[in-house]
Design goal:
Layout (H helix, E strand, L loop, with lengths): L1 E7 L5 H10 L3 E4 L6 H10 L6 E5 L11 H10 L5 E6 L2 H11 L11 H18 L2 E4 L5 H12 L9 E8 L10 E4 L20 H8 L2 H23 L4 E8 L5 H13 L5 E6 L9
Parallel strand pairs: 1-3, 1-4, 2-3, 4-5, 6-8, 6-9, 7-8
Helix pairs in contact: 1-6, 4-5, 8-9
């Protein structure tokens, strides 16, 4: 039997992840009292009704009883009941925004500020995050992208690293993305904008891709960037970082940056980290 304990920050997507696991054939139980977890695990492993896949939702709603979870997990481990912990996380600013958009009250904020509730929750969940087998940061993920990650790990049984990379193309004339960790300027490359046959196409179109990549500078830049990213990621992971936003910009964010973002994604996709490509400004100033 495969037992997954699903937990994480309120607003980070735990409920959505449980629904996805349920759709994948898992028997799901959410917010079971902490004191009943040990008995529940015994029944699912040793009971007359056999379960192949079980997901158990645990979060801050357990109140003070959450402090007992650490002891229960140690007991399960000592008695050879295997389990995995999936921890859903997101940046504080993202969580605040989600709460404000949905007008929900954070479980620990009461009549106070959402930020204070998030800070308190993060402190109380730190012990289980340290034990987590999988940490998924949903700050940059759409629901369908989260589903893709859940399916890879718990349906297709693919290897997953607790590190997610977003490669983002953008136009400098619209501003540098605020959540960027690394920013690269590719305006030194030949610009397809000045070719009338390519002006209204984008880096997603083959003619533009060929135009950009036919420059020797594009290949040399990608080689150096790929080497640097391969060097940086393991060191970021050692320092506890679990996501990386690589922003690649050109003037308008439609041609060169889109091409280079796609090419970089194709190269580092083999590293088996979570990965998505986003083209922020590709539709701006589109021809009507």
């Amino acid at each position: 039997m495969r037992l997954v304990i699903v937990t994480g920050m309120s607003g980070a997507g735990k409920s959505s992840a449980l629904k996805m696991l349920e759709d994948a054939g898992y028997f799901c139980v959410d917010n079971l009292p902490i004191q009943l977890i040990y008995k529940f695990v015994q029944l699912t492993y040793n009971g007359t009704e056999k379960f192949d896949k079980v997901a158990l939702g645990v979060d801050i709603r357990s109140g003070q009883a959450l402090e007992e979870l650490d002891m229960i997990l140690e007991r399960l481990k000592s008695e050879n009941y295997p389990y995995e912990i999936l921890f859903l996380d997101a940046g504080d600013e993202v969580l605040v925004k989600r709460y404000k958009e949905t007008r929900r009250i954070h479980p620990l904020s009461g009549t106070g500020r959402v930020e204070q509730g998030i800070e308190s929750e993060r402190e109380r969940l730190e012990f289980i995050k340290r034990k987590a087998d999988i940490i998924i940061d949903t700050s940059q993920l759409l629901i369908r992208e989260l589903k893709t990650q859940i399916d890879k790990i718990y349906t297709l049984n693919e290897k997953y690293h607790n590190f997610f990379i977003t490669i983002l193309s953008f136009g400098f004339k619209y501003g540098i993305p605020m959540d960027s960790d690394l920013v690269f300027d590719v305006r030194f490359l030949p610009n397809p904008f000045y070719d009338q046959t390519l002006k209204y196409q984008t880096g997603n179109d083959q003619p533009v891709r060929d135009y950009v990549m036919n420059s020797n500078m594009a290949g040399a830049f990608l080689n150096k960037l790929e080497d640097m990213i391969a060097f940086l990621i393991p060191n970021y992971i050692i320092e506890g970082k679990n996501q990386l936003v690589i922003s690649i910009g050109c003037t308008g964010g439609k041609h060169r940056s889109v091409t280079l973002a796609n090419e970089l994604a194709a190269r580092i996709g083999v590293l088996e980290y979570g990965l998505k490509v986003e083209h922020r400004d590709i539709e701006k100033d589109a021809r009507r």
